[in-house]
């Protein structure tokens, strides 16, 4: 196949050469005649003129050539069976007689160098041919111009941007040197022998990153233990065993702040060791320490309880029942901060036990077991006055009276969370915030306060359930001036007009920097723009499932997360431009 | 440098072992601590002479720091900046230097 091609190509080329030669001879004869006829006495001038008009003629020739090529193509298609296009060939030869052909010599249009024309020689800006070097340069320049366009959006890049957005990283520019180093250390943790004199805050961040990558083992744990430390922060203890926990308190006997997450193997022996060695615990956070027996819990709190100021117990599903919890409370009268979450065996009895902790300033509760509204009310009524933080998650039986108790007793709150409830009504939320003695709050989380009656997706028409329009407006009127963090995800009975009034672009919430408006499907582009305009300090807007937001101009430095219809505008540079706002 | 006169475009950073790095003032300002040292409204010796002696940072680390300062300056407003390459053997010392030089108390500390 290749051979036959070669043969025919050779034939064609031979024919072509022959025809070209004939035409050239004819042209030369003609040219000589013309020269003799027209300008016999000024041959030099003629040559000069030729040089000056060379370019023009070349362009004309090329245009003609293009025309011929076109017509040739058409004709060829038309009469495929017809005789060879001898006429066209003649025309071709006639017009191409002066164009240098592959193999011939020509002067480069740009650098005037003499060079051999090849099929790859490029045409210059004025239509002449270019030498190899200039051709290459021209190509390179062309590619350079084309490149930026091509870079526009690659999938990986977008994925990366999105991933960063979810982590709340929207700042332009390079990562901080600290961040770079911490990541590098985490990458090479196997080769690190000791951290040396790293400051506490850096140790904490390293622990977080290493825990996230799940590389905290018995060996890497040693890096975080030094006799002069008073803090142990390990966010993932999943790979640690009893001996490792005992080692912690052996190496760091003065540990005051202990934070162990995922501490499945934190067993009786460890607590025995802590009690034996009189570890001066003041802040204790334990997650998933399920192998500690009730008796040993009681022992721990009766020994260390007096000193404890901060206690956080999460994910205890087997140990820690109501009676043990009573021991805990009676043993730790000085607690200032108490967080009890996902302890499956605690119920109303635990709530009433907490009400004896009069030093509490921060209280966060999430009880999976059912509790009753009166028990919760009594708790708030007895200790609410001192509270700075009150976080009640998923108290499904809490009703408007709980809100009213909060209104009457809690007057020093800065942080309030009351989420996942479908009993409280909008009127209840209005009365909570209306004329509330408490100064404006800085953190409010009222996620998922809505009706969950599927027969009435919009909730009852009269007296709406959950945080609805009136409640939301009263909330913003009360706390808007100091509010920094607002979560109202899934409070779907707040209507459009309420959002439009609250975020009208004229009212300003100077400190609000994080807001979660996920699954509030009524929010559209205009409201989103209003949020950006009303909150100059905004950093992060979480808006999963807000399908009506699209093409919103996101101010620089703001992370807009989860919006499915505004992928391209998610990080946008430049200042806000919202002249189209109503 | 006396107050009132124009600021020099370059400043000198001196490592604990005596290496001197002359870098753009703008780049030096990336580091909060150095920026405060060079604050023209202050009467610090560093601000007057334009020379900062960083006694806790040795030459090898300071060279890398200077590299970072320029890297940061170059990518000031760029998006998706490629990470700077840091030799693993330097990263811990560099981390300490970074902590010192960023010049603000870390929020994790409070």
Provide a concise account of the structure shown:
The complex is a heterodimer of chains A (582) and B (110). Chain A has 582 residues and is an alpha/beta fold. Helices cover 43% and strands 10% of the residues of chain A.
User: Largest beta sheet of chain B: what is the strand line-up?
Assistant: 2-1-3
Q: Largest beta sheet of chain A: what is the strand line-up?
A: 3-4-5-6-7-8-9-10-11-12-13-14-15
Helix content of chain A: 40-55%
CATH superfamily of chain B: Potassium Channel Kv1.1, Chain A
3D structure, described in words:
The complex is a heterodimer of chains A (582) and B (110). Chain A has 582 residues and is of the alpha/beta class. In chain A, 43% of the residues lie in helices and 10% in strands. In chain A, the strands form 2 sheets. A 13-stranded parallel β-sheet of chain A has the order 3-4-5-6-7-8-9-10-11-12-13-14-15. A two-stranded antiparallel ribbon of chain A has the order 1-2. In chain A, strand 11, helix 17 and strand 12 form a beta-alpha-beta unit. The C terminus of chain A is likely disordered. Chain B is built from 5 helices and 3 strands. In chain B, strands 2-1-3 form a 3-stranded mixed β-sheet. In chain B, helix 4 packs across helix 5. The termini of chain B are far apart. Classes of the chains: A alpha/beta (582), B alpha+beta (110). Chains A and B meet through helix 5, helix 6 and helix 7 of A and helix 4 and helix 5 of B.
Give me the secondary-structure topology.
The complex is a heterodimer of chains A (582) and B (110).
Chain A: H1 2-38, H2 43-78, H3 86-96, E1 105-107, E2 114-116, H4 132-150, H5 155-166, H6 177-187, H7 200-212, H8 218-221, E3 231-234, H9 242-251, E4 257-260, H10 268-277, E5 283-287, H11 294-304, E6 310-314, H12 322-331, E7 337-341, H13 348-354, E8 362-366, H14 373-383, E9 389-393, H15 400-409, E10 415-419, H16 426-433, E11 443-445, H17 469-479, E12 485-487, H18 496-502, E13 514-516, H19 525-534, E14 540-542, E15 559-561
Parallel strand pairs in A: 3-4, 4-5, 5-6, 6-7, 7-8, 8-9, 9-10, 10-11, 11-12, 12-13, 13-14, 14-15
Antiparallel strand pairs in A: 1-2
Chain B: E1 10-14, E2 20-24, H1 25-28, H2 32-37, H3 45-49, E3 51-53, H4 59-74, H5 91-101
Parallel strand pairs in B: 1-3
Antiparallel strand pairs in B: 1-2
Biased composition (Basic residues) (chain A): 67-77, 144-160
Biased composition (Basic and acidic residues) (chain A): 15-31
GO cellular component, one term (chain A): SCF ubiquitin ligase complex
């Amino acid at each position: 196949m290749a051979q036959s091609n070669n043969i025919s190509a050779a034939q064609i080329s031979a024919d072509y050469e022959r025809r070209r030669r004939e035409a050239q001879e004819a042209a030369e004869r003609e040219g000589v005649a013309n020269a003799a006829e027209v300008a016999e006495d000024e041959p030099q001038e003629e040559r000069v003129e030729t040089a000056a008009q060379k370019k023009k003629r070349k362009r004309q020739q090329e245009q003609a050539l293009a025309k011929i090529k076109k017509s040739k193509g058409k004709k060829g298609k038309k009469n495929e069976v017809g005789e060879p296009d001898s006429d066209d060939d003649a025309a071709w030869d006639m017009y191409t007689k002066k164009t240098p052909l592959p193999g011939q010599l020509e002067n480069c249009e740009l650098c005037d160098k003499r060079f051999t024309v090849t099929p790859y020689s490029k045409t210059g800006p004025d239509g002449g041919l270019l030498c190899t070097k200039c051709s290459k340069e021209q190509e390179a320049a062309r590619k350079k111009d084309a490149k930026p366009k091509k870079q526009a959006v690659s999938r990986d890049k977008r994925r990366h941007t999105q991933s960063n957005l979810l982590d709340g990283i929207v700042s332009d520019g390079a990562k901080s040197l600290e961040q770079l180093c911490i990541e590098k250390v985490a990458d090479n943790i196997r080769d690190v022998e000791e951290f040396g004199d790293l400051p506490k805050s850096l140790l904490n961040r390293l622990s977080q990153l290493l825990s996230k990558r799940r590389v905290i083992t018995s060996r890497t744990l040693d890096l975080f233990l030094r006799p002069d430390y008073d803090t142990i922060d390990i966010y993932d203890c999943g790979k640690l065993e009893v001996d490792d926990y005992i080692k912690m308190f052996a190496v760091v006997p003065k540990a005051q702040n202990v934070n162990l997450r995922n501490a499945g193997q934190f067993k009786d022996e460890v607590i025995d060791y802590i009690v034996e060695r009189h570890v001066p615990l003041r802040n204790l956070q334990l997650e998933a320490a399920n192998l500690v027996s009730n008796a040993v819990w009681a022992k721990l709190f009766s020994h260390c309880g007096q000193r404890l100021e901060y206690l956080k117990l999460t994910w205890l599903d087997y140990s820690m029942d109501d009676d043990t919890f009573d021991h805990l409370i009676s043993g730790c009268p000085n607690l200032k901060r108490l967080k009890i979450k996902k302890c499956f065996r605690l119920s109303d009895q635990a709530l009433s036990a907490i009400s004896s902790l009069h030093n509490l300033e921060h209280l966060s509760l999430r009880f999976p077991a059912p509790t009753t509204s009166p028990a919760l009310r009594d708790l708030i009524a007895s200790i609410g006055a001192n509270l700075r933080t009150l976080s009640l998650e998923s108290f499904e039986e809490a009703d408007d009276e709980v809100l009213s108790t909060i209104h009457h007793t809690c007057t020093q709150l800065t942080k309030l969370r009351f989420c996942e409830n479908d009993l409280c009504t909008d009127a209840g939320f209005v009365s909570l915030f209306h004329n509330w003695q408490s100064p404006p709050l800085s953190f409010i989380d009222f996620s998922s306060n809505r009706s969950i009656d599927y027969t009435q997706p919009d909730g009852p028409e009269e007296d709406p359930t959950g945080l609805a329009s009136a409640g939301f407006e009263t909330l913003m009127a009360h706390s808007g001036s100091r509010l920094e963090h607002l979560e109202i995800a899934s409070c779907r009975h707040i209507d459009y007009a309420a959002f439009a009034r609250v975020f009208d672009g004229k009212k300003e919430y100077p400190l609000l920097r994080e807001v979660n408006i996920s699954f509030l499907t009524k929010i559209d582009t205009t409201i989103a723009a209003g949020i950006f305009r009303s909150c100059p300090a905004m950093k992060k807007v979480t808006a999963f499932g807000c399908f009506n937001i699209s093409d919103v101009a996101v101010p620089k430095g703001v992370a807009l997360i989860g919006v499915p219809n505004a992928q391209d505008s998610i990080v946008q540079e430049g200042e806000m431009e919202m002249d189209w706002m109503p | 440098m006396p107050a009132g006169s124009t600021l020099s475009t370059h400043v000198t950073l001196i490592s604990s072992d005596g290496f001197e790095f002359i870098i753009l003032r703008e780049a030096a300002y990336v580091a909060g601590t150095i920026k405060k040292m060079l604050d023209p409204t202050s009467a610090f010796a560093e601000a007057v002479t334009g020379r900062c002696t960083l006694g806790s940072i040795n030459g090898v680390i300071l060279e890398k720091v200077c590299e970072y300062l320029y890297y940061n300056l170059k990518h000031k407003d760029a998006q998706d900046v490629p990470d700077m390459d840091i030799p693993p053997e330097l990263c811990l010392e560099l981390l300490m230097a970074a902590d010192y030089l960023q010049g603000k108390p870390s929020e994790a500390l409070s």
